[in-house]
Amino acid sequence: MFRTGVQAEIGRTEETGVEVVGEAADVDQAVTVITATRPEVVLLDVHLPGGGGVEVLRRCAPLMAAAESPVRFLALSVSDAAEDVIGVIRGGARGYVTKTITGADLVDSVFRVQEGDAVFSPRLAGFVLDAFASTDAPPVDEDLDRLTQREREVLRLIARGYAYKEIAKQLFISVKTVESHVSAVLRKLQLSNRHELTRWATARRLV
Q: Which residue numbers delimit the HTH luxR-type domain (predicted)?
């Protein structure tokens, strides 16, 4: 419903000058569509199912680095959490706006990113500058960066004591998928079991 609303708002080409060339419901679809259409600007959902916006940025890094006609990304999210904002900006996004933005401002943001500018919602601009310029900014957690957005969600719920069935119900995924995510998290973090995982998450105040 939200994607339909955004497309209706910005996709009136004669009025906005924006042509919507594709849309996607998850990470795999997004990478496929972006690779096939090579849009000038991608409006990227930070919490896109299948790994999140950071995973899309990682897989589309060559397109962003192209010498000619690079694909630029503008993150769009309901979240203004520090880890979300910094994660996608470090991943290569040119801006970050929240879903409270008006249609006219969103169109303006798309064109500004297309021209190479960095665009942030007013509340986030100062925060982003502080986070990247301050000597007190928290260090990059390379271990945490190895995890996709979905893996982080599963990690937090495991650390909070949720059973696999409860996690599956809360995230609207199968128990088998939960098990796959847990295995991936343990492998990436070089941990042996959920008890070690809980201690790891607690030590980083992720619970």
A: 140-205
CB 88 within 8 A of CB 44: yes
The structure's pTM equals 0.63
The Cα–Cα gap between 76 and 141 comes to: 23
What tokens were used for 137? 């900014």
Q: Is the dihedral of CA 168, 86, 19, 59 positive or negative?
A: negative
What tokens appear for 180 in the block? 């796959």
Locate all alpha helices (DSSP H) within 95-148, ordered by sequence.
103-114, 122-133, 142-145
Is the separation of the CB atoms in 20 and 54 below 8 Å?
A: no
Residue indicated by tokens 């000619």: 68
CA distance 7 to 139: 38
**Which tokens in the block code for residue 10?**
């910005």
52-84 tens-digit pLDDT: 899 999 999 999 988 788 999 999 988 777 778
Q: Computed from CA positions of residues 93, 99, 102, 107, in that sequence, does the dihedral angle turn out positive or negative?
A: positive
Tell how far CA 194 is from the center of its chain.
25
Give the integer Cα–Cα distance in Å for 77 and 100.
9
Give 43's contacts (C-beta < 8 A, 6+ positions apart). Answer: 6, 74, 76, 106, 110
